[in-house]
Each structure stands twice: as structure tokens, then as C-alpha cells.
Design goal:
De-COase2_CS; binds ligand LLP; TIM Barrel; 8-stranded parallel barrel; 9-stranded mixed sheet; Lyase, Ornithine Decarboxylase, Chain A, domain 1; EC 4.1.1.20; globular
Length: 409
């Protein structure tokens, strides 16, 4: 078992074994995700140490690789699922139905049909409901199992406007209607919890302050509705992406949560996604072309926004490091690292100081384990990359050109 005491709070690119990564790239080609399953277990162990009594449910959407799900399950966490597809993956990876939450955000009919069918077949999962009429849709299907009500406390936090859910109208039951929805649910379902999620990538003082405000409001709502098995305060625990950022102090986060929820007679539940997997994977890519003036170098690489969307979508920062042994002796210059997609947004960095790149260089992008592979697409008819464990096991095959047209009729 992973020992949280021996496990650093963050793993930077420089902590990966460059020779090992290079060998894996030679064997499996690029672009390539490399995932360290031991690091997944360590991250789970550190969460467990900080939140010894909480229900921890891994937000499957961050990384759905079967081997990752199994590592999380082995570490004793449950699964939080955003769709029927995620519920299916969690059950297939061996999570007990009891440990599976289906967070139904505007759930499609087909998803409700599937999840209720699996519940009828014996998966005793919990459905987290964010709208009064979702309860009706469950009643119509004869569901009377566990339900958790998702509230919208009206305050969000997170690394980008696009991922702050706490205030966005599409999520949850508005605070002023929460009591009424609980009252309507209680006679028909086994109502076990109150849920709220502030947003993703909570990191830094401003976010932590907003998160406290969020927690205070959740505590108020929980006090109002009473009689709860648990209060689920969502995911959102951030990780440092830049090398000058410090990792969050998990114990301080835990203390803040305890303080704000103090006095409630309910277990704490949390749904961390990013924290579990972010620093457990790197993306390897090769430089195919170098051009531009000495101070405006562009390194064209074989990975693009189709493999890692976060920089294009959120202006997210990912550390980039050359894995070439001689790169330490090279001069640094401002480099734009760009993918092969026909969009100007398809860059991983612009004018970032890096060792002067050469054609054929192998580069690594750090902290891509969360929302990296998962947001990959086949835009520009680019097959999705492969994902290999650090131990060398193929987790997800590289898509082929034939896969691109497989569903066409
Ligand atoms: N619970 C709920 C209800 C969520 O919606 C999410 C994330 C989580 C838990 C997990 O949050 P985490 O611990 O990972 O912050 N694609 C974006 C992140 C979107 C997060 C969506 N919801 C990104 O790449 O930054």
C-alpha cells in the first residue's frame, strides 16, 4: 500500500525518469500518454490521510482508463459518475454499486433508463438529482432507491470561468428551493445526502476564500434540511501546474471544511477528480519541424489540441520539458510549441523559455493525467493517442485511421 508519508505533495516533470520515458516513446511512438499507476495510489493515500472519515468518491470523468479506475478502487475510494457511460465503466472496473454515485446533470432519457436498469439488476447506487423534475423522471421509472439532492449554493470557485459550477444556473436546485425539493423527495425515495460542487481547480488564496463561502452556504442548507447521512461538498481540490506554485496543504483544506461544517450530524463526502490523477501522467510528443527567427522559434510537434485540449480551451499552463540528454547544454530561447491542427489556438505555450529545440526532440508535457486523454478528440481526423503505464502496459491503444471511419455508413 502507498504510504502517504513517503509521497511528495506534487510530482513535477523533473521527477520523472527521462530515460524510461524515452524508451517508452521509442516503443509506442508519439503522441503518447504515460500514466504512473503507483502515483494514482499515492494520491489516493494522501487524500485518505487528510480525510480519514470521509466518503471519498473519485470523479471518474478526470481519467476513465480501466487501470486507473482499478487503482482507485483498490485504494478504497468510491466513484462519482457524470453519465451512464461512466457508471458502466465504474461497475465494470469492480466498484460496488453502493460506492457509485450517478450525478445526473440534465440527464438524457437514455442515461436514466440505463442506470435504473442496472439498479434493478442489483447495483445499489445513489442518484444525485439537480432538478425537481428529475425526481419525477425517476418516479416514472419506478426508482425508489437512494437519492441525493444537488443544491446550487450560488457561489463558485475554480481555475477558469468555464469550470466554476457553484453559481451557474444549469447546476443543482437553487438554494431557496432546496427545502421544498427535499420535502417532495423524502416520501418516495431513500434521501441520503445533500450535494454541492463549487468548481474545479481550486487553488490559491482567492479561490480558497470563495470555497469557504461556498462551504458556509452548504452548511446552512444542510442545517435547514436536516436528517442527512452525508453532506457532499463536491470536487475541486486543485494542483499546482506552474513550477513556482506551491501544492495545496490538504490538511488545511480538511480543517477548513471541518470548521465550516462543524455541528452537522452527517458524514463528509468529497469527489476529487483532478487531485487523484493530474500529476500521474505525462504526454510525450516529438518535434517535427522547427522554424522562425531565433527569438520567435516555433517547434511544431506531433501532439495537438486534439490530444490535450486544456491550453486551447482554458489557456491552461502545462509544464514542458525536453527529454533530450543534451538539452541541458543548449541555450534557452522563447519557443512556441504548436500542434498540427489548423487553428491558431492549437499551441501548448507561446514564447516560453525552453532549450532551443531540434527536429526529432522528444518533449514531455506535465500534469496531464486529469482531463487530458478524456477531452481528446479526432478533430482534423486525428486518431486519438495511446496511453501506456509507466510499467509498460498498454492501457489504451492508439486509434488507427480505420477507426476514424468505422462508424460511417
Ligand atoms: N464533482 C462534480 C459534480 C464535478 O462536476 C466535478 C468536475 C468533480 C466532482 C471533480 O472536480 P475536480 O476534483 O476534478 O476539480 N475539464 C476541466 C475540468 C472540468 C471539471 C468538471 N467537473 C479542466 O480540464 O480543467
Amino acid at each position: 500500500d502507498a504510504d502517504p508519508e513517503d509521497s511528495p505533495a506534487i510530482r513535477r516533470l523533473a521527477d520523472w525518469d527521462a530515460d524510461r520515458l524515452s524508451d517508452i516513446a521509442d516503443e509506442h511512438d508519439t503522441p503518447l500518454y504515460v500514466t504512473d499507476l503507483d502515483r494514482v495510489a499515492e494520491n489516493c493515500a494522501r487524500l485518505r490521510a487528510a480525510f480519514p472519515d470521509a466518503d471519498l468518491r473519485y470523479a471518474v470523468k478526470a481519467n476513465t482508463a480501466r487501470a486507473v479506475l482499478e487503482a482507485v478502487r483498490d485504494a478504497g475510494l468510491g466513484a462519482e459518475c457524470a453519465s451512464a457511460g461512466e457508471v458502466r465503466r465504474a461497475l465494470d472496473a469492480g466498484f460496488d454499486g453502493d460506492d457509485v454515485d450517478y450525478t445526473a446533470v440534465n440527464p438524457p432519457e437514455r442515461d436514466l433508463d440505463a442506470v435504473v436498469e442496472w439498479w434493478e439488476d442489483g447495483a445499489d447506487l445513489t442518484i444525485t438529482v439537480g432538478a425537481a423534475d428529475t425526481l419525477d423522471r425517476l418516479r416514472e421509472r419506478g426508482y425508489d432507491g437512494r437519492v441525493c439532492v444537488r443544491a446550487n449554493p450560488g457561489v463558485g470557485a475554480g481555475h477558469h470561468e468555464k469550470v466554476r459550477t457553484g453559481g451557474a444556473a444549469k447546476f443543482g436546485v437553487p438554494a431557496e428551493r432546496v427545502a421544498e425539493v427535499f420535502a417532495s423527495a423524502r416520501p418516495d425515495f431513500d434521501v441520503v445526502g445533500l450535494h454541492a460542487h463549487a468548481g474545479s481547480g481550486i487553488h490559491g488564496d482567492e479561490d480558497l476564500a470563495a470555497h469557504r463561502e461556498f462551504l458556509a452556504r452548504v452548511a446552512d442548507l444542510a442545517g435547514d434540511v436536516g436528517d442527512l447521512e452525508y453532506v457532499n461538498v463536491g470536487g475541486g481540490i486543485g494542483v499546482p501546474y506552474r513550477d513556482d506554485e506551491e501544492p495545496l496543504d490538504l490538511d488545511a483544506v480538511a480543517a477548513a471544511i471541518r470548521e465550516e461544517l462543524d455541528g452537522l450530524d452527517a458524514r463528509l463526502a468529497l469527489e476529487p477528480g483532478r487531485y487523484v490523477v493530474a500529476d500521474a501522467a505525462v504526454l510525450l510528443t516529438r518535434v517535427n519541424t522547427v522554424k522562425g527567427a531565433p527569438n520567435e522559434l516555433v517547434a511544431g510537434v506531433d501532439a495537438g489540441m486534439t490530444d490535450l485540449l486544456r491550453p486551447a480551451m482554458y489557456d491552461a499552463f502545462h509544464e514542458i520539458r525536453s527529454l533530450e540528454p543534451d538539452s541541458v547544454d543548449r541555450e534557452e530561447a522563447p519557443v512556441t510549441v504548436a500542434g498540427p491542427i489548423c487553428e491558431s489556438g492549437d499551441t501548448f505555450c507561446e514564447g516560453r523559455p525552453l532549450p532551443v529545440p531540434e527536429r526529432g526532440d522528444l518533449l514531455a508535457l506535465g500534469n496531464v493525467g486529469a482531463y487530458g486523454y478524456e477531452m481528446a478528440s479526432t478533430y482534423n481526423s486525428r486518431p486519438r493517442p495511446a496511453d501506456v503505464s509507466l510499467a509498460g502496459e498498454l492501457l489504451r491503444e492508439r486509434e488507427s485511421l480505420a477507426d476514424l471511419t468505422r462508424l460511417e455508413r
